[in-house]
Task: inverse folding
């Protein structure tokens, strides 16, 4: 019985080519999109779950409000790990990973690299995380100072086939580190990827008892059955005991007084497995994913699958009229309803199965391209196969159930007498399903365009400086004081208009953040300011503007003891005439607070992504005495404003000059704009994905519409024939048939307006600087959907409208 | 009114060529009632379709009301048809989605007759045909006889010069069949030319003359001595 049904199905597929192609292909594309998204979602959800103790590992993080400033950082202080282990019995192990500002230059033999994925770590890191060793002993590898553990690929980069154990590598030409272990590279679904782990014992700061310097990513493992919430509940006492006294000493204000003034200080635990998708603190180790996008893509996947299933149901029910005779005859010959239901369900499952096989093949073929497009490393998970098979049967039953139960309900007498009306009920259901599909498509389409507009806006928004034609030579701090000469030589080039050296550039985290005071009529005000250390040419090179006063200049010999603050800072302090006032800097020599005059107010510029508002900042010229000692005198970034033409020649000459100073140092550069746009990587990826999938959704919806149109036209051949006999013209018939589609799309547009409005406003909330919901975009998206829909039905309608009426009526 | 000379209609399909009408000559006067008979496949429907300008000729001449139709484009044919011709089919060919009223109204609609006048004419027609009570019913709610009455109403609503009826009584029992024949005869009395295909010799005798077709040719013609009562 089963095989005879399969045989009938296969025969039907072959006979109804267009119908079958639309059905199988449409569903295959839908399922392929769905599988791809599921792979992506699985990948994102799998982050850090591979550690054996994953569900017991927590990261210690800090959320504080001091003097009206909020800190939300993924860091904690050096002594906290030890304290947690000693004072709380539910803590099994702890480990710390250092947060390093700079990037060391590592040498071995003639190999030299500037290393960005270099950190310090407690020897217990191997007790907390599953980090498999290739050579070396995890128990001892990081216990001694100056011990270095490398990843496999890093070891190969420096040592080739040589055994690295026991070899010495130099760091910044000063320190010698001994390689004690080689570990496997971190898998891509880890929230950190280091190439080097230096024993934390190397750093004296690791033994610091200062609770106010938060420089470590601290991870703890709880004992089995211990509750993180109960542990967190004990933190306030710990904070009062250790942080309180140190704050009092530093600020001269009592802990209770501070709390009364609205300050707060909270240490909390983040489950390891939540970090990648849920944590958006400052000083994350890497840019994390975003759970919102996971939801969005899951919804899109569901939508595409639903659209494809709807096609399936719609086409099957549209065809019901032509299958009614078959049902009638089968019933007269003795088939009962159950057998018919079974037949149609098997038919549907067989078709679904064909689609899914096609879908899996599509996914396998497309995945490499897809990964490349969106910068992911997804691979097909064969462990999904049983689920896919189960899903196939489910989708098959779901998509086949309506036609199965609908068709099998036909009364054979009515069907065979030929007086069965082409079911009004069925066509109303079909219309609502089409409306549903187009509503989704228009929403996806509108959103895609708006995401694109927002990202364009972000890139084109006046950043407060001119981001074009800026070449950034990185790691120039490697040549130390020679930077002066390097800059001079660069400035002589015709292709180089301006040169500046700074510790930081917009788009990178500021070089530090510190509390500064200012005397105001209502007493001393304290604010946290982001810090930039720059030379005198920073303003000119970036093309920033002063709002008041002036920037540093070599014409004023006193300038290396002055600062410039931004407008946001002026506002934060709430002072009237900031120029000429002084910033109060804590921790001068003998605990005397230093005072530095403000010589100018720089116009606000975006030094962080447009996700966040512009914060108060201070620009400190090199050599300024700050925090009781001389400040930096050179920085990591040398920025050149270059001529917009002959870029490659410019690059070559800059590299040649660099080589003259840096000898064996690599020449590493970026174009400023590329670097800054990397801040929106998450959004760009979302945009690419959203575009792809909304185009797919619309395509699949149109495929369904095409099938539906051809059946409508077929169903209405008789009507069309009669109308033509009675004098209807081709355009008249065209209007008649396309009016329906037009109405459906218009209803869809109306429905999608409020939904897309709500969804987009929600998404735009993520940006501190954003465009509004654009009605024009919505209208364009709707029009495009309309045009595509009308275009899709057109050729079917034209075919129907131009056939000779006699042919149509002969079918009677 | 209608005159053909060596009229041919050939159907070509991939496998074969069928000559449905073969050098056919026929002359029909204004106001005549002509019955067409012949075995199945002899070309009766084809003849009606060609004469009714639903289909093109393959060769030969066809003059309708002085116009040479075989030279007309499809568009011109459709225009000429719309103004001059009405059809009645064996299977009624009413539009299921439209009511009785709307079905009858359609030809006027396509002739761009203004709405008010359309309503007036259709109402009059339905009255005259005795189906006014059914004006808002759908075709499936009517008996075969009633459906054919609607079809006839629809065919004559535009006051055509000629009515082509292809087995109009084919799907009807004898009493309903007779009613339809009476309708046609009445129309003919009022001056409408009627060309009707039928398998029934009795109904054929209602015509002024009967034309017998075989293999696409006229093989016999008889004037009916005693036209309709
Ligand atoms: N569209 C067509 N394509 C091919 N052959 C056709 C077509 N229409 C009619 N024929 C052929 O032309 C011949 C005449 O057909 P026609 O329909 O005129 O016969 P008929 O006399 O009306 O028969 P019946 O009494 O069964 O209705 C037949 O052999 C038929 O097969
Ligand atoms: Mg016939």
Result:
């Amino acid at each position: 019985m089963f095989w005879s049904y399969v045989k009938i199905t296969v025969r039907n597929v072959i006979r109804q080519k267009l119908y079958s192609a639309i059905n199988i292909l449409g569903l295959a594309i839908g399922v392929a999109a769905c599988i791809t998204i599921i792979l992506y979602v699985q990948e994102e959800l799998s982050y850090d779950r591979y550690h054996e103790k994953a569900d017991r590992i927590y990261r210690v993080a800090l959320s504080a409000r001091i003097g009206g400033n909020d800190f939300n950082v993924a860091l904690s202080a050096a002594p906290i790990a030890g304290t947690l282990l000693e004072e709380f019995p539910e803590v099994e192990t702890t480990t710390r990973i250092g947060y390093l500002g700079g990037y060391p230059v590592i040498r071995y033999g003639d190999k030299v690299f500037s290393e960005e994925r270099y950190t310090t770590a407690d020897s217990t890191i191997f007790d907390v995380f599953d980090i498999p060793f290739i050579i070396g002993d995890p128990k001892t590898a990081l216990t001694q100072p100056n011990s270095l553990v490398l990843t496999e690929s890093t070891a190969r980069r420096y040592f080739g086939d040589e055994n690295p154990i026991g070899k010495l590598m130099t760091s910044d030409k000063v320190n010698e580190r001994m390689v004690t272990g080689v570990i496997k590279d971190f898998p891509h679904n880890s929230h950190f990827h280091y190439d080097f782990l230096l024993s934390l014992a190397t750093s004296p700061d690791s033994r610091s008892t200062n609770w106010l310097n938060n420089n470590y990513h601290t991870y703890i493992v709880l004992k089995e059955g211990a509750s993180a919430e109960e542990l967190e509940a004990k933190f306030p006492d710990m904070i009062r005991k250790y942080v309180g006294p140190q704050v009092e000493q530093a600020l001269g204000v009592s802990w209770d007084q501070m709390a009364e003034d609205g300050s707060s200080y909270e240490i909390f635990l983040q489950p390891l497995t939540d970090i990648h998708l849920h944590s958006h603190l400052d000083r994350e180790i890497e840019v994390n994913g975003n759970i919102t996008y996971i939801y969005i893509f899951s919804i899109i996947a569901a939508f595409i699958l639903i659209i494809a299933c709807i096609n399936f149901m719609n086409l099957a029910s549209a065809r019901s009229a032509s299958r009614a005779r078959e049902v009638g005859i089968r019933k007269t010959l003795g088939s009962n309803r159950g057998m018919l239901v079974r037949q149609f369900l098997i038919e549907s499952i067989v078709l679904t199965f064909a689609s899914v096989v096609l879908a899996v093949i599509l996914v396998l073929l497309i995945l490499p391209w897809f990964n490349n497009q969106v910068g992911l490393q997804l691979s097909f998970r064969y462990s999904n196969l049983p689920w896919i098979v189960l899903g196939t049967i489910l989708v098959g039953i779901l998509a086949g159930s309506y036609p199965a139960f609908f068709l099998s309900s036909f009364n054979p007498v009515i069907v065979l007498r030929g007086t069965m009306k082409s079911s009004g009920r069925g066509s109303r259901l079909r219309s609502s399903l089409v409306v549903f599909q187009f509503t989704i498509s228009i929403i996806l389409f509108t959103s895609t365009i708006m995401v694109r507009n927002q990202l364009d806006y972000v890139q084109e928004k006046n950043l407060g400086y001119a981001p074009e034609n800026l070449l950034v030579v990185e790691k120039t701090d490697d040549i130390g004081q020679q930077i002066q000469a390097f800059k001079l030589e660069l400035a002589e080039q015709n292709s180089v208009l301006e040169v500046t050296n700074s510790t930081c550039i917009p788009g990178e985290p500021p070089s530090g953040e510190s509390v500064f005071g200012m005397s105001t009529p209502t007493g001393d005000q304290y604010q946290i300011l982001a810090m930039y250390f720059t030379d005198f040419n920073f303003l000119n090179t970036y093309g920033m503007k002063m709002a008041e006063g002036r920037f540093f200049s070599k014409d004023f010999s006193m300038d290396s003891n002055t600062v410039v603050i931004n407008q946001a800072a002026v506002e934060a302090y709430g002072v009237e005439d900031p120029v000429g006032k002084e910033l109060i800097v804590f921790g001068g020599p003998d605990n005397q607070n230093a005072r530095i005059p403000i010589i100018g107010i720089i116009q606000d510029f975006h030094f962080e992504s447009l996700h966040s508002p512009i914060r108060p900042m201070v620009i400190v010229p090199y050599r300024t005495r700050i925090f009781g000692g001389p400040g930096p005198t050179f920085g990591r970034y040398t920025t050149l404003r270059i001529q917009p033409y002959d870029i490659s020649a410019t690059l070559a000459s800059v590299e040649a000059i660099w080589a003259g100073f840096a000898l064996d140092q690599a020449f590493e550069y970026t174009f400023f704009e590329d670097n800054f746009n990397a801040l929106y990587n998450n959004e760009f990826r979302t945009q690419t994905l959203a575009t792809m999938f909304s185009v797919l959704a619309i395509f699949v919806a149109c495929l369904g519409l095409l099938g539906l149109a051809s059946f409508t036209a077929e169903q209405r051949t008789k009507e069309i024939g009669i109308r033509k006999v009675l004098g209807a013209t081709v355009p008249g018939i065209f209007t008649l048939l396309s009016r329906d589609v037009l109405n459906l799309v218009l209803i869809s547009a109306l429905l999608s307006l409020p939904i897309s409005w709500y969804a987009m406003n929600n998404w735009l909330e993520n940006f501190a600087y954003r465009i509004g919901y654009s009605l024009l975009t919505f209208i364009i998206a709707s029009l495009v959907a309309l045009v595509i829909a009308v275009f899709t039905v057109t050729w079917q309608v034209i075919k129907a409208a131009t056939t000779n009426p006699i042919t149509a009526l002969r079918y009677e | 009114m209608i005159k053909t000379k060596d009229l041919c209609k050939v159907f070509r399909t991939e496998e074969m060529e069928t000559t449905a009408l073969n050098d056919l000559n026929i002359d029909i006067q204004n106001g005549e009632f002509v019955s067409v008979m012949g075995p199945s496949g002899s070309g009766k429907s084809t003849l009606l379709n060609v004469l009714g300008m639903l289909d093109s000729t393959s060769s030969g001449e066809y003059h309708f009301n002085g116009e040479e139709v075989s030279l007309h484009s499809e568009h011109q044919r459709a225009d000429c048809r719309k103004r001059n011709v009405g059809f009645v089919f064996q299977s009624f060919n009413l539009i299921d989605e439209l009511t009785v009223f709307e079905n009858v109204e359609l030809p006027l609609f396509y002739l761009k007759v203004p709405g008010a006048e359309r309503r007036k004419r259709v109402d009059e027609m339905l009255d005259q045909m005795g189906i006014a009570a059914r004006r808002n019913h759908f075709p499936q709610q009517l008996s075969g006889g009633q459906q054919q009455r609607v079809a006839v109403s629809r065919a004559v609503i535009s006051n055509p010069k000629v009515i082509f009826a292809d087995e109009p009584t084919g799907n009807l029992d004898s009493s309903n069949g007779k009613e339809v024949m009476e309708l046609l005869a009445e129309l003919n009395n009022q001056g409408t030319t009627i060309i009707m295909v039928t398998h029934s010799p009795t109904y054929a005798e209602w015509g002024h003359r009967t034309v017998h077709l075989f293999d696409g040719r006229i093989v016999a013609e008889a004037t009916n001595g005693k036209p309709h009562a």
In short: The first helix of chain B runs from residue 44 to 51. Residues B 11, 13, 18, 20, 38, 40-46 surround adenosine-5'-triphosphate (ligand 1) (CB under 6 Å). Chain B touches chain A through 20 residues (CB under 8 Å).
